[in-house]
Amino acid sequence: MVLRYTISVLFGWFGVCCMILSISGCEQREQQSCRMANEYVVAKNESAPGALEVMRLDPDRIAVFWSADGTSFFSLINNDGIPQTKPLELSPKAQAPTGETKTFWSKHKQYRLNAVSISASRISDDQLAVSLLCLAGDNATAVFSVRVNVRTHSVERIARVGTSGLYARHISQMVHQGKLVVGWPDTTHTPQQVRIAVLNAQTLDEISSSVIAQKEAVFGPTLQSNGNAAVVLWSKVAGKTVPLFATPYDKLETPDSEQLVDTLELFHADAHAVPYRKGFAVVYRDNRDGDRTEEFYFTVIDATGKKRQAAERISRADGPQGPKLSVGDEFLFSAAIRSYNNNYLVGFNRFSSSGTKTGGEFQVYADKCDFTRAGIATSGDKVVLVYAENAGSSGRILASTITCGKKK
């Protein structure tokens, strides 16, 4: 395969060279006409970040959540990627002076929210709900929900929601009909199940819970809402294949309510769904081409979970996390951690609603460290990219903007 690429050096925060590549392969040979602006340091940590979540808060601000150094943090950046607040540790000591933090810390005084997966949602003008799947010791993980006040930059409540096993690595949440819905894999059960808890968004108390269980192992879930519609994506092992399903949330316990989205070879698709038109846009990983390297695919489902178009392969996604997706005015945008030349880097793509890519993949690459997590948020067709750096003995959370010209 002939690769045609351009390399430019970004001078600034890196002591080593950070390179931006636009690479395209056999299917497309034009270069991506994208440019990256100044890079800003959101946080410096003593260890590599373990989880990252990026969520647009309002037209001017983006919320960033990450874990490192045995705990989890929150900060705000603007549309240029410039930090607007100092990192806030998600712990009882970060509560407002007059706040009342609900916590279980009296029995676990040394507990730290060292998340391996983070999911966040907005529950009011000033409040965010954050779900964290955290290492808990004794070969276990624990699920926590944290309510953060953006205006006071403080933690208001912390609640322990549930538990799972050592190999659980994914959590997802949504706000639906005023309630907080949190889902995670229960790896303590054989075969593996998916647990979903419905919480009061203010008190974080559990209202109800349910389980997605089959005779086979079940993986996921991915939760997303769009107005009154809400879906749950999950997969199960079925012999040598792994069907990926989408189910209307209100029919989760209705037999045969699931819609087949795709048939995969990977056990865990690490799907990401975002509201799109009256339904949802979805990206997920698979390895169906037999090259032993994970790629990711894009499709659109309606409000009932029914697939509206064939899945389209976008790019490689063989890093430690799956792809992330955001919707712009004209394009959809994705960020995925992928390998290239024995490094992990961020692959950025833009494509139409049919999954047709515009230009080659734009890549953010550093020659002496890896980028291991990435998140993305859009403002029109201007993209804010947030990515986690693993420099071996330290780590950083970085942010920058990417703008792309029209396809030539």
Question: What report would you give on this structure?
Answer:
With 408 residues, the chain is mainly β. Helix content is 0%, strand content 56%. It has no helices and 31 strands. The model is unreliable at 1-18 and 22-29 (pLDDT under 50). The strands form 7 sheets. A 6-stranded antiparallel beta sheet has the order 1-2-28-27-26-25, with no helix packed on it. Strand 26 (332-340) and strand 27 (343-351) form a beta hairpin. It has strands at 4-10, 18-24, 34-36, 40-45, 51-58, 61-68, 71-78, 88-89, 115-122, 127-137, 140-149, 154-165, 172-176, 179-186, 193-200, 206-212, 218-226, 229-236, 242-248, 259-264, 272-276, 279-286, 295-301, 312-316, 324-327, 332-340, 343-351, 361-366, 370-379, 382-390, 395-404.
